[in-house]
Amino acid sequence: MMLYRETPYWLLLLVALASCSIHDYHAPADGRNEWAEAKCTSRRRPAVGPGVSLDVRMPSVRPSKADNYLCTGVHIPSPEATYIVNFTPRASMEKVHHMILFGCKLPGSQMRYWDCGTKPGACHGPPNIMYAWARNATATHLPEGVAFQVSGESGINYLVLEAHYGNIAAFKGSELDCSGVTVSMISKSPQYLAGILLMVANSGIIPAGKKETNIDISCEYNIPTPIHPFAFRVHSHYLSNVISGYRVRKGKWDLIGRQNPLLPQAFYPRNETMSIEKGDTLAARCVYNSEGMKTDTIMGPTSSDEMCNFYMMYYTESRNGINFLDCYQPGDETLFRMIPAEANIPVPIDPALLHEHAHHHAAMPEGSASHRHFDTMSQPSDDAKEDNGIKLQQVKWWRPQVENFGQVSAVAMDSDGLVYFLHRGDKEWGSERLFGEDQVFLHREPITTNPIIALEANTGQEIWSGGKNRFYLPHGLTIDQKDNIWVTDIALHQVFNLGSRKDWSRHDGQGSLIVLGKAFDPGSDLLHFCKPTAVAVDAFYEEVFVADGYCNSRIIAFSLPDGKYLRHWGRAGFGLGQFNIPHDLTWAPNLSQHAHTDNLPALCVSDRENGRLQCFAPKSGNLLREIRPKGVTTVFSAAYTPEQGGLLYVLDARYSPIGLVLNYSTGRTISKFFAESPPFSMPHNLAILGNNSAVFVADVNAHALFKFVPKDQALRSTAKWKGSAVGLVVSPVAIIALLSAPVLILLAVGGYAAWRHRHYMDFSGRKGAGLNLGSFLARRSTHSHKGFDILSTEESDREHEDEDEDDEVVEYSASSSLTTRER
């Protein structure tokens, strides 16, 4: 059994033609995806990641028949070595069954697009698979320091997109299609080069009427260069309910990844490091259930056939880069006698996902939900749409009056109504490799500018700044009820309570009230963090909660002011009480109707890559609610305000990134908001200024802090300051002038009108520092980006108004505790 660098062309063509979704889904009817709308546009999209972006999409095509395979090629503009760091799909499965992006020396045709179902194929010569998409999978952002090489000496001069159009009935009238992929590229050589390994079964029979049939693949890895898997993808048509891939070393089977191929066929991240070295064996198993089938099914490219594909994204050292490997040999029977039993256990999937696919909804691991009682909360009917919600608009002229700030990772408010934001100076997470495989930060130079800056909310004028030479890669910012400044630093793996800005003059900005974690020393015990993301403070019970974030996927509570460990809960996963990057924390009311629950506010966790919020009882860790806004693929940040009976603001940083306003009680989306000048790139964190008078959003990729205000409030004629209406103050001199001369009256009125014109969009309210439920619940933390151990997926299709969506809100009994005191 051998692993091959070059595959027979006919087999790759077979994989390309057949790597599509056959199950009958129904795409959203709201037309979110502008790339699949009837009117195709030719305008360039903004860069999705660092560097430049290149669109590879269909040039206004219309498929002529069912199961039509069309290809189009784009020449890579730079002859020098260029590196792809991000793939963002621009498609809807309503129109497109699958897309594959190939790297080619020459395209299969010089036409603008061509039928590549037979010959010519995608490439003139051997194709290199670089990206694959199906079932509304989300975008893929490679880990920092990892990229696919094109141009230069790579032999890849063109990117060729293959799109499979399954059901042409989806095209109405003269509707055209512009589906495709946006790739984000950089010119700087990364430390590691990415590649794809494809394991595929090219033969096999699935007998009709059998509950379980196994198709196995295995190859020996015989190449001297080690490879390191960081993501995986599975593919079959409709009979498989689990596909698994393993590394076998000295008889020990280590899981690379397993998933249900009926879920969105994205590249799923691996959360643990692994190396595959010469002498190891790679093995994959696809399990099929053919009950109900009347005839046998074979491996093949048509919709009546089946497939068994396991994709693995990996990285290697740049100097030894291998961009494509494949394995297509049948599995060794002796070897597979020892395969772990989990490989034959179906991965459960919510049946609703067969009809809903607006976001990536991962399967629940074994035992995660089956033993818990939960109630689905009643949702308003379509006839009861909420039309009285907040609608936000961007204050386009508003900017921080600060020079030379870097990636903006977080924003928070103090009791005086000042807006604080956290930036990273000259440190760019994503532009170069910053962490080793052990998560130790590789660069020990601190940020030499002040990363914490306080602004006047109306004007954006800088009021105060601090923190220089203390932080290395700050992530989260929280201002507690006593105006203490809390910062998480993912490079230091620490959490800091720095006191209030008024305390800094006493310790020259170098002291800390509390320091949690060990500097530059990641870990998973009770004394260490690994890339902590966010903080929430309970001033009444004197406890602080830390989202220990990118590696450990848990929530840890400590006492105040001594910082002693109290409790923790959560682990990595997709089930209830599990997290895939707990990214932000916010307080919200406890709406549970069950007895024995904590009579306290709920601590809601932005479970980023699982696309949901999970709200917990803070004293026990019991899960109270799960909120899954429909159409959301990620939840980077959330903040609660008691206005209008309770609103929850949420950020989704996928596709065309967007913000949502939810009714907290029902979970229904009331309205959505987005930035236009400049547009959102990766909205990372948000904070609310008192009484819902303004919302501030930190965008880490855009290096920007945005301000939004309610549309109705933007038209009011008085400003709110600390909760009191303050009219225009007219000086005694002006009064005398007004009384003495009609001309001065006209001038004064004109001046007042000009003043109003300048400020009409910005009326901020500030709340006092007293501890009450409203102000307590409005406090929160925030933050995010992606670690080397987590595969990132970014950007989401913009919806301006879509109030008829039914968002999923599930309420849970608190009778079973999720808390773990020892790990």
Shape: globular
| Most strands sheet | 10 strands, mixed
Give the percentage of residues in beta strands.
25-35%
Total DSSP helices: 6
Q: Kindly name the structural category.
A: mainly beta
Ends: how far apart? Answer: 41 Å
Q: Helical content, roughly?
A: under 10%
Given as residue ranges, the uncertain stretches (5+ residues, pLDDT < 50) are 4-39, 41-50, 351-387, 715-741, 752-805, 813-823
Topology, number of strands: 50
Mean pLDDT level: 77
Global Rg = 27 Å
Describe this protein's structure.
- The protein is mainly beta and 823 residues long.
- 6% of the residues lie in helices and 34% in strands.
- It contains six helices and 50 strands.
- The strands form eleven sheets. Strands 1, 3, 7, 8, 10, 11, 14, 17, 20 and 21 form a ten-stranded mixed sheet that branches. Strands 22-49-39-38-37-36 form a six-stranded antiparallel sheet.
- A hairpin with a 5-residue loop joins strand 34 (554-559) and strand 35 (565-569).
- Helix 4 packs across helix 5.
- The protein starts with 8 loop residues before the first helix and ends with a strand.
- Mean pLDDT is 77; it is low at 4-39, 41-50, 351-387, 715-741, 752-805 and 813-823.
Summarize the model shown.
Helices cover 6% and strands 34% of the residues.
Keywords:
globular; six-stranded antiparallel β-sheet; 6% helix; 823 residues; disordered C terminus; mainly beta; 6 helices; ten-stranded mixed β-sheet
